[in-house]
Amino acid sequence: MTELLQKAIERVQALPEDEQDRVARFMLDAAKAASEANGRGQEETQPIWEWMAEQAKNVPDEEWEKFPKDGAAEVDHYLYGTPKRNS
Length: 87
Known about the structure:
The structure is a single chain. The protein is mainly alpha-helical. It folds into two domains: about 40 residues; about 35 residues, no CATH class. The chain is about 65% helix and about 0% strand. The longest helix is centred in the middle third of the chain and has 28 residues.
């Protein structure tokens, strides 16, 4: 438990019981909303390789044919303009 949460609990415990219940309900509702928001975010997130595979399906074959066949072996050439190693 964090120090801040501990202080909050101590202050709530000093309140009359009806006020304790009101604050506790507020905290529970806030915690539920935060939990749901975190869960939704995780479900909507997908690994980058899955996203890339989905995007690749939308690229026409004629565009894929424009990619260099030696792209992996000559990545420095295509990214940075260095001389090709295997020409």
